[in-house]
Amino acid sequence: MNTLGQLKASGYKSKSIKQEMRDNLVAALRNKTPLFQGILGFEDTVLPDLQRAILSRHNILLLGLRGQAKTRIARLMTELLDEYVPIVAGSELNDDPLQPLSRQAIDLIELHGDNTPIEWLHRSQRYVEKLATPDVSVADLIGDIDPIKAATLKLPYSDERVIHFGLVPRSHRCIFVINELPDLQARIQVALFNILQEGDIQIRGFKLRLPLDLQFVFTANPEDYTNRGSIITPLKDRIESQILTHYPRTLDVARKITEQEADLSPEQKNDIYASDLLKDLLERIAFVARSSEFVDEKSGVSARLTIAGYENLISTAERRMLINNEEKTAVRVGDFWGVIPAITGKIELVYEGEQEGPYNVALKLLSAAVKERFLEIFPNPQKLKKGREVDPYGVLSAYFSGGNVVQILNDASDVVYKKELEKVVGLEKFVAQFAPNIPANEKHLYMEFVLHALCEFDIISKDFVDSYFSFRDPLADALGELFDGE
């Protein structure tokens, strides 16, 4: 169908965008069609709220901390639009041929009648996104008088045809998203709430009656209400549904999100093995950070921390593999020191954290995550029963008490790495006793993990020098310092 006449003959009926989305959602729910694929952890919380808002034909505010998939959700809402909708060919406001809005489209239909050419707009072209920043103006969003147009067409400024429309009118019949709404100046927000309520826009004192058809979606971070601005009350009152997002509530969901979003090359996926132990350890860092006394809870800890961290973790192992000219390798606990740059850039520190410094805070988060995971597998060294005949850590402690030192180079080949771990008397047997069901290719990883964890419980000590970890007896370190002092 290429003309208005053909469109009328087909029986096509116009719908508002909110009715269109409602109808498509009703059909999807009845047919159990999967929606919002790739959004994990929100199945019983955010997504039902979102579906209720769409069924109610509401404008929506997604409120949550950074890294909670707010923008991703908004972009996926295009799934609920019809695949194609007709527009008057060449119209700048996506005019519905059966309900033209702009002066341009009305004039075209009056001139050509049923022969008015139409075009078909795909759902992917019906999504408009704007990041709210303090420099956004009314002209950017609503529009302004174009004096050149007025002079060229010899029309007065009061004529609609001399208006250069902004993003909002040009998004007629589209999903219009404003990210970080509180960053928008109050006077700009005022220009929006009348559109939501009445469909009026005002430009340079000339009031136009444009019944714009829009699905508004706003996103905001609760922290922004006090840090950078706020949503003015009249505008907030006109946003019918406010939906709260949240971080993943389980490690399993968090892992799935990280693995889904991490951008790994085919070679990395094929050549680098990452165990579930280390994937869980990475997610625990984010969970620990969200409750840490050093991290600003109101700012949040984005899921991007673990995504970037996972990419760094794999790349650290890959770099070592390339240096040693190996075909494949596995991620080690020591590789987490390559993740620290991804942690320090993703957390906002409170005063106590600033005093510690970002690097030290990252180490403390990693330390807490290691201890948590260790205690899920092995006995708590700090809560051994008194009078117990056999201390499970006795053999390991005795090995280091004898003056033995284990050094693991960051870039050591897999052969050297395994050989160094196998030097520790009783370590392999200890892992086999308390973690008997681990895959055979993860035995040395668990052995290394035990050494790192024993350092966190002060059974042995660990020094991190630029290119290697050195594990030794803590008493030997203390005596060495004493003798050095003398």
Main traits of this protein?
alpha/beta, Helicase, Ruva Protein, domain 3, 3 domains, five-stranded parallel β-sheet, Rossmann fold, Arc Repressor Mutant, subunit A, three-stranded antiparallel β-sheet
General description of the model:
Strands 4-7-10-1-11 form a 5-stranded parallel beta sheet, with helices on one face. It has a 3-stranded antiparallel beta sheet with strand order 14-16-15. A two-stranded antiparallel sheet has the order 2-3. It is built from 23 helices and 16 strands. α12 crosses α15, α14 packs antiparallel against α15 and α21 (427-434) crosses α22 (443-456). It has helices spanning 4-9, 17-31, 46-55, 70-76, 103-112, 138-141, 147-153, 167-170, 186-197, 224-227, 233-238, 251-261, 266-271, 276-290, 304-323, 340-344, 351-356, 358-375, 394-401, 414-422, 427-434, 443-456, 474-485; strands spanning 60-63, 84-88, 118-122, 127-131, 143-145, 163-165, 174-179, 200-203, 206-209, 214-220, 241-244, 272-273, 329-330, 406-409, 461-465, 468-472. It is 45% helix and 14% strand. The relative contact order is 0.09. The protein is an alpha/beta fold and 486 residues long. It folds into 3 domains: 4-244, Rossmann fold (3-Layer(aba) Sandwich); 251-376, Helicase, Ruva Protein, domain 3 (Orthogonal Bundle); 388-485, Arc Repressor Mutant, subunit A, CATH 1.10.10. The model is unreliable at 481-486 (pLDDT under 50).
